[in-house]
């Protein structure tokens, strides 16, 4: 496994890769002086930098994340929420063929997403349009949504 620290408008991020797949992005990462040599991490850092600069609306990276089958279904559905748009937890449940009452389970899976930003869990909001929990904190969620929808906040 290789890791790479990068700075971003939402704080330090640690990118994790294994066997040519991006496996995780951690918030609140502390910088390290060394820069792991890894072509995938080079590409992930490039694409994230473009995203934060407003020059990229989607990601093209090989991903691998460990989770239950339900979590993987939710994470795949998150990737279908277009840049600049949001969906409620109930919307995600319906799109997966479940009743909206399963929205709490969708929320739990959303919160367990190991590859935030690239798998855009920040685009999921409450049914009433409020910004609900985000593993990186509500302030980061606001920044990410405002990046995608200028003037939103």
State the gist of this model.
The chain is an alpha+beta fold and 153 residues long. The protein has helices at 39-52, 69-78, 89-95, 103-111, 138-148; strands at residues 2-6, 13-18, 21-26, 87-88, 124-125.
Structure description:
There is one protein chain. With about 150 residues, the chain is α+β, with helices and mostly antiparallel strands. The chain has two domains: about 1-50, no CATH class; about 70-150, Winged helix-like DNA-binding domain superfamily/Winged helix DNA-binding domain (Arc Repressor Mutant, subunit A, Orthogonal Bundle). It contains five helices and five strands; from the N terminus they run E-E-E-H-H-E-H-H-E-H. The strands form two sheets. It has a three-stranded antiparallel sheet, with helices on one face. The mean pLDDT is about 95.
Question: Secondary structure elements and their pairing?
Answer:
Elements: E1 2-6, E2 13-18, E3 21-26, H1 39-52, H2 69-78, E4 87-88, H3 89-95, H4 103-111, E5 124-125, H5 138-148
Parallel strand pairs: 4-5
Antiparallel strand pairs: 1-2, 2-3
Helix pairs in contact: 3-4
Order of helices and strands: EEEHHEHHEH
Number of alpha- plus pi-helical segments: 5
Please state the CA-atom Rg, rounded to the nearest Å.
15 Å
Mean pLDDT: 93
| The CATH homologous superfamily of the largest domain | Winged helix-like DNA-binding domain superfamily/Winged helix DNA-binding domain
Brief descriptors of the model:
Arc Repressor Mutant, subunit A; 5 helices; two-stranded parallel ribbon; 33% helix; 2 domains; three-stranded antiparallel β-sheet; 14% strand; 153 residues; alpha+beta
């Amino acid at each position: 496994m290789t890791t790479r620290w990068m700075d971003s408008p939402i704080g330090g991020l640690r990118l994790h890769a294994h066997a040519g797949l991006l496996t995780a992005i951690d918030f609140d990462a502390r910088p390290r002086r060394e820069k792991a040599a890894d072509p995938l991490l080079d590409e992930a850092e490039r694409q994230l930098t473009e995203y934060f600069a407003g020059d990229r609306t989607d990601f093209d990276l090989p991903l691998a994340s460990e989770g239950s089958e339900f979590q993987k279904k939710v994470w795949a559905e998150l990737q279908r929420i277009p840049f600049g748009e949001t969906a409620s937890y109930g919307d995600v449940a319906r799109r997966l063929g479940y009743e909206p009452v399963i929205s709490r389970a969708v929320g739990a899976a959303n919160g367990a997403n190991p590859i935030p930003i690239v798998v855009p869990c920040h685009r999921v909001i409450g049914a009433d349009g409020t910004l609900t929990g985000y593993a990186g904190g509500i302030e980061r969620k606001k920044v990410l949504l405002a990046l995608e929808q200028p003037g939103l906040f």
